[in-house]
Amino acid sequence: MSVQATADPAAAAPRGTAARHGRRLAALVAGLGVVLGGCASLAPHEPLPAAPVPASWTQTAPADDGQPAAALAWRDYFTDPVLRQLIDTALAHNRDLRLAVLRADQARAAFRIQRADALPGLGLGAQAARARVPGDLNLSGVSAVGGEYRAEVGLSSWELDLWGRVRSLNEAALQQWLSGEAGRRAAELALITQVAAGYVGLRESDERVALARRTLATRQEALRIFSRREAVGSASRLELTQVQALLSQAQVLLAQLEQTRAGRRHALEQLVGAPSGVLPAAAPFDQTPALAELAPGLPSALLTARPDIVAAEHRLRAAEADIGAARAAFFPRIALTGSWGSASAELDGLFESGSRAWTFVPTLSLPIFDGGRRRAHLDLARLRRDGAVAEYEQSIQAAFREVADALAARHWLAEQRDALREALAAARERARLARLRYENGSAAYLEVLDAERDLLTAEQQLVQALGALQSSQIALYSALGGGSQAAASASTR
Predict the structure, then answer these.
(1) pLDDT in tens, 310-328
(2) Residues 152-193: pLDDT tens digits?
(3) Using an 8 Å Cβ cutoff, are 153 and 121 in contact?
(4) Largest CA distance in the chain
(5) DSSP code at position 338
(6) CB–CB of 215/456 below 8 Å?
(7) Three-class SS of residue 45?
(8) Among 66, 68, 74, 379, which residue's beta carbon has the most beta carbons within 10 A?
(9) Distance between CA 477 and CA 293 in Å, rounded?
(10) How far is residue 116's CA from residue 189's CA, in Å, rounded to a whole number?
C-alpha cells in the first residue's frame, strides 16, 4: 500500500505562499532529523551469555608472581633482537595480515555507506526542455512550440526512521566494523606468536643439527681409529662394524634433522613474507634467557583480553541489531522527497522574481501481502543471533582450553627439562666410564655402543624439551591475549 501527496505551486497556492513553504522545507527536514534521533530501536538488548567455563584454572603455578600478558607488549616479551626484526618484517609483509587489514577497512567503508542512509541526501539539478505540439493536438488548432527550464535543490527519498530500522542497520554495520578491527588485532597477535614459534623451532633444529654434526665428526674419527686397529689386528671385525653402525646412525639422524630444519626455515620465510637471509648464530638453548613468567589471572579476564572473543561479541551485537531492523520492517515506512528552486518557460526568466517553484512528496508504504517474506527475514535474523551466541560461547571455551593447555604444558615441560638435564649428565658419565672400561679391557665395545646411542638420544631430547617449553610460553602469551591492552593504549595516543 502506498499513499503519496504532491504539492504544485502553479495549481495549489500563490507564488508567495510557495516561497514561504520552500523556505520552511530545510528547517522542517532538520527538525525531523532531531526528533527522529530520539526514536527507540526495536533491537533486543540482552546481556551477554555467562561464560561456559570454570571460574579458575586447574594449573596456575608458578605464575603467581608473573606479569599480565594483556599489558605486556610483544617487544617487551620477546627480547631477542633477531626475533624482533623478523616480527617487524612479518607485520609489514605478511599476506594473511594484509587480508585481515583489508577486511577491516572494507567493514569500515560499509559502515560509512550505511551511516549515510540516516542523513538526507541533497542534490543540485538543472533541466532544459523544448517541445512542439501539433495543431490537431492543441485546443487552439495551431501548432505551438514551448519550453521549460528548471534549476533546483532536491531532497532525495529520505526515510523517516520512526521505528529505528535505519538506525538498527547502522548499528549492525558499526558492530561488523568493530568486529573486523578486533579480527585484525587477533590476526596480528596470531602472526606475532607464529613467527616467534617458528623462530624457536628453527633454533631448536639448528641446535640439534649442531649436536648431530659434532657426534658425526666424533664417530668418523672413531671409525678411522678402529679401521687402523683392525688392520693391525688390535681390534676385531665385529668392533669395526659396531663403529660403522654408530656412524650410520649419526648420518641418518643428521639428514633427517637437515630436512626438518629446511622445512621450518621455509615456513618461517612464508610467515615473514620476505626472505629472512642468513640468521646470525645464537647462544645454545640451555643458555637462552627464559621468557617472562605470565600471570594467567581469571578466565573472565579473557572476555576483554582476547581479540577473537571481542570480535565474536561484536558479531553478536550486530546480529541483535539485524533483529531490530527485521522487526521495524513490519511497520509503515515514510519517506520524504522534495525540491526547491526556480522554473520558467524561457531561459532568460529562470531566475527572475516570481519564478520560484517547489515540490513536497511524502510517501507512506506498508506491504499488505508479501508471502511471509518479512516473517522469514525476522526468523532468519533470530536464528543468526542464536548462531552468534553459540559462536561467542564457543570462542570462550576454545580460549579457556588454549590457556589451560598452555599452563599444563609449561608446568610439565619444565619438569621434563629438569629430568632430562639429569638424564643427560648421567648419560655423559656412563659413556665416559664405558670408554674407560673398554680401553682397560674390562668391557666389550657393545657397552660403549649402547652408551653412545643413549647419550645422543639424551642430547636430542633435552633440546626438544627446551624448544617445547619456549613454545608453550609463546602459546600462553597468545592464549592470554598478549599485548592487547598495550596495543589499545598505543592506538589511543
Answers:
(1) 999 999 999 999 999 999 9
(2) 888 888 888 888 899 999 999 999 999 999 999 999 999 999
(3) no
(4) 139
(5) E
(6) yes
(7) coil
(8) 74
(9) 10
(10) 33
Task: Report whether 145 contacts 338 (CB < 8 A).
Answer: no
- Looking from the CA of 247 toward its CB, the CA atoms found within 13 Å total 17
User: Residue 365: helix, strand or coil by DSSP?
Assistant: strand
Q: Show the cell assigned to 103.
A: 577486511
What is the CATH number assigned to the segment(s) 1-38+121-160+335-365?
A: 2.20.200.10
Residue for grid cell 678402529? 226
CATH 2.20.200.10, the chain: domain bounds: 1-38+121-160+335-365
Distance CA 252, CA 149 (A): 91
Q: Tell me the whole-structure pTM to 2 decimals.
A: 0.81
Q: Is 334 left (phi over 0), alpha (psi -120 to 50) or beta?
A: beta
CATH 1.20.1600.10 location in the chain:
49-118+161-331+373-491
Bond from prior residue into 296 cis (ω within 30 degrees of 0): no
Q: List, for residues 95-150, the tens digit of each pLDDT value.
A: 999 999 999 999 999 999 999 888 888 888 888 888 888 878 777 778 888 888 88
Given its phi and psi angles, is residue 297 left (phi above 0), alpha (psi -120 to 50 degrees) or beta? left
* Closest listed residue to residue 421, CA positions, set 459, 453, 450: 459
Q: Which amino acid would we find at residue 115? A: R
